[in-house]
Write a structure and sequence with these properties.
CATH architecture of the largest domain: 3-Layer(aba) Sandwich
InterPro entries: DUF4276
Strand order of the largest sheet: 2-1-3-4
Pfam families: DUF4276 (PF14103)
Number of strands: 4
Order of helices and strands: EHEHEHEHHHHHHH
Radius of gyration: 18 Å
Protein name: DUF4276 family protein
Distance between the termini: 20 Å
Number of domains: 2
Structural class: alpha/beta
Shape: globular
């Protein structure tokens, strides 16, 4: 009989859920394969709580997660900078500390930070083959303007939007499809290869945090 992990997530925006839901589940499934026993990862469920200051937001979500039997809660914030240093110091660490210190409430305390540098769209650029497949283009990375390391791109969302424009203008009007970046979040969450994403330092840090969550549950040593 397999053991199970139930996973929840709070994210910054609705589009983030569409991408991160698939990515988080498949990362958990990848780490589960490292365990000595069979682990089933249930669907990654959004945790619905009112958006407030980050420490209250995470605390209230951890309480709701516990009420719903969620074993691991992922917390997404974009670094919005060249590194994740300030995101951890100013947002993640204070929020996580409050959950761990407060012993008066029933809370999900197995927390996993999800902190893309600079924003979640940088992770969407992590597997450029999958990105181009979803854009249905044969243009090169250079022609699309995506030939730089994703975490060094100041505005990865704008970079993807510009790549979409390039991909569309090379098609005949008959074969042109009004693709938008909004069409890419969910399929890339499903199809981007974890093996490519772990080449990004911020994603690698997330994967290591997932391993820590498995260790906390006693599934990984």
């Amino acid at each position: 009989m397999s053991n199970i992990i139930t996973v929840g997530i709070i994210a910054e925006g609705s589009t983030d859920y569409r991408f991160l839901g698939g990515i988080i589940r498949r990362t958990f499934e990848t780490v589960a394969m490292e365990c000595a026993t069979d682990i089933d990862v249930y669907s990654v469920d959004p945790i619905e709580v009112n958006k407030t200051a980050i420490t209250d937001y995470v605390f209230n979500a951890a309480k709701r997660a516990d009420e719903h039997g969620i074993m691991v809660m992922c917390v997404h914030v974009d670094a919005d900078a060249e590194t994740d240093k300030d995101a951890f110091a100013d947002r993640i660490n204070p929020a996580f500390d409050r959950v761990q210190i407060d012993k008066t409430a029933d809370l999900c305390r197995n927390l996993v930070p999800v902190v893309p540098v600079r924003m979640v769209e940088a992770w969407m650029l992590g597997d450029k083959i999958a990105l181009k497949q979803e854009m249905n283009t044969t243009l090169t990375d250079t022609e699309l303007g995506i030939d730089r390391p994703p975490e060094r791109i100041a505005d990865p969302k704008a970079c993807i939007e510009e790549a979409i424009r390039h991909s569309q203008k090379h098609k005949t009007r008959r074969h042109r499809y009004e693709l938008t970046i909004g069409d890419l979040y969910e399929p890339l969450g499903i199809n981007a290869q974890i093996a490519q994403l772990v080449l990004l330092p911020s994603f690698k840090k997330f994967q290591e945090a997932v391993r820590d969550a498995f260790r906390e549950l006693g599934y990984l040593h």
